[in-house]
C-alpha cells in the first residue's frame, strides 16, 4: 500500500511539493489543484508554472478523509540535514558544474576559466570535504563559485544559455521528514485541534465539502470557478482535454433564499461562457445532494 501523500500546510493552505505526488493526485485521484511556482528563465510569466501545487480546501479535506493524504505542519516539518544529505547536495552541484563545462566547450570550442572548476579541482575539493568530520553551512556556501556568471579572459561577462538535466523526482524531500513525530495529522479534526487547519468551520463550508465529495465520486474533475461566477468548474474529464460543462454554486441548504436576479445573472453568464450553471445544495438529514441547472433560453 502506498504511503499517504504529505500535504504541507502553511498559513492554513495545503501545498504539494513532490512532482511524483502531483502526478499521482491527478492520474489516480482526479485532483488537479493549481501550480503556482515560477520556472527558471520564466520568472515573470504566469502561464506555465511549476511546483508547489496549491490545493483548494475542499480538495485537501477530501484527500485526508479518503486516507490518501495527511496534513504536515510546515513549521515543524523541517529538520537539519545530515552529513550524507549535505554531501549528496554538493555532489549534485558538482554534476551541474560539469554539465555547464561540457555545454560551454561544445558551444564555444574552449573552456571557461573562472566559471567551472576543472575535474582535478573538483576532485581535490571532494577530498577536502570528505576529510572533515562534519559538514557545516560554510561547506554549502563554498559551492557558490560553480554558479557565478561566465567570465571571459578579459574580465567581461558573457551571456550564454545552456540546457541542464536536473532530476525532477522526489529527492527534494530528502531534507523533509513528514513522518516525524508531532507534525503529521491523519484527520481533519486532529489538524484543527493542532491549530494548523480550520476548514470546514461553518455550515456553508461543510456544504461545499459535501458537494465537492459528491461530484468527485460521480467521476467529475473539479476546479475553481471564481472567474465564471461560481465556486467550482465541473469537467467531464481531465481539464487538459475537456472544457468544463458546469459552473457550480453551493447553497447552504435546500431552504436557502435565492433572489430572481441571481437566477437571471447565473443563467446569462453561464450561456455567455457556453456553460450550464449548477445550483447545488446538501441535505444533512437525508445525507444527499440536490442539483438544479439553469440555462438561458430564447423567447418568441
Please tell me about this protein's structure.
The chain has 300 residues and is α+β, with helices and mostly antiparallel strands. Among the domains are: 1-77 and 177-198, MutS, DNA mismatch repair protein, domain I; 200-299, Trna Endonuclease, Chain: A, domain 1, CATH 3.40.1350.10. The protein contains eight helices and eleven strands. The chain has helices at 19-29, 57-65, 83-108, 119-131, 137-141, 188-194, 203-217, 260-272; strands at residues 5-10, 13-16, 34-37, 50-54, 69-73, 184-185, 221-224, 232-235, 246-251, 276-283, 288-294. The strands form two sheets. Strands 3-4-2-1-5-6 form a six-stranded mixed sheet. It has a five-stranded mixed sheet with strand order 7-8-9-10-11. The longest helix is centred in the first third of the chain and has 26 residues, at 83-108. It is elongated and about 75 Å long. The termini are far apart. One of its GO terms (molecular function) is tRNA-intron lyase activity.
Amino acid at each position: 500500500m502506498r504511503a499517504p501523500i504529505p500535504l504541507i500546510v502553511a498559513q492554513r493552505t495545503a501545498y504539494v511539493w513532490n512532482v511524483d505526488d502531483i502526478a499521482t493526485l491527478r492520474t489516480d485521484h482526479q485532483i488537479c489543484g493549481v501550480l503556482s511556482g515560477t520556472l527558471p528563465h520564466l520568472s515573470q510569466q504566469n502561464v506555465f508554472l511549476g511546483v508547489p501545487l496549491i490545493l483548494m480546501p475542499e480538495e485537501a479535506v477530501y484527500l485526508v478523509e479518503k486516507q490518501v493524504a495527511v496534513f504536515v505542519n510546515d513549521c515543524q516539518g523541517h529538520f537539519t540535514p545530515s552529513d550524507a544529505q549535505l554531501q549528496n547536495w554538493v555532489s549534485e552541484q558538482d554534476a551541474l558544474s560539469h554539465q555547464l563545462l561540457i555545454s560551454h566547450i561544445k558551444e564555444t570550442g574552449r573552456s571557461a576559466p573562472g566559471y567551472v572548476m576543472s575535474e582535478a579541482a573538483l576532485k581535490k575539493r571532494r577530498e577536502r570535504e570528505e576529510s572533515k568530520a562534519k559538514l557545516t553551512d560554510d561547506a554549502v556556501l563554498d559551492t557558490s563559485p560553480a554558479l557565478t556568471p561566465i567570465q571571459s579572459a578579459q574580465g567581461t561577462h558573457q551571456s550564454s544559455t545552456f540546457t541542464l538535466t536536473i532530476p525532477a523526482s522526489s529527492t527534494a524531500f530528502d531534507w523533509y521528514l513528514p513522518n516525524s513525530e508531532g507534525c503529521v495529522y491523519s484527520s481533519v479534526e486532529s489538524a484543527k485541534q493542532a491549530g494548523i487547519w480550520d476548514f470546514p468551520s461553518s455550515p456553508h463550508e461543510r456544504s461545499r465539502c459535501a458537494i465537492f465529495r459528491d461530484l468527485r465520486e460521480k467521476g467529475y474533475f473539479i476546479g475553481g470557478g471564481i472567474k465564471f461566477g461560481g465556486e467550482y468548474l465541473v469537467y467531464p474529464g481531465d481539464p487538459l482535454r475537456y472544457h468544463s460543462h458546469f459552473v457550480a454554486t453551493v447553497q447552504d441548504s435546500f431552504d436557502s433564499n435565492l433572489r430572481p436576479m441571481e437566477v437571471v445573472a447565473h443563467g446569462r453568464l453561464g450561456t455567455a461562457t457556453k456553460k450550464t450553471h449548477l445550483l447545488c445544495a446538501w441535505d444533512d438529514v437525508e445525507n444527499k445532494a440536490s442539483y438544479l441547472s439553469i440555462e438561458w433560453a430564447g423567447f418568441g
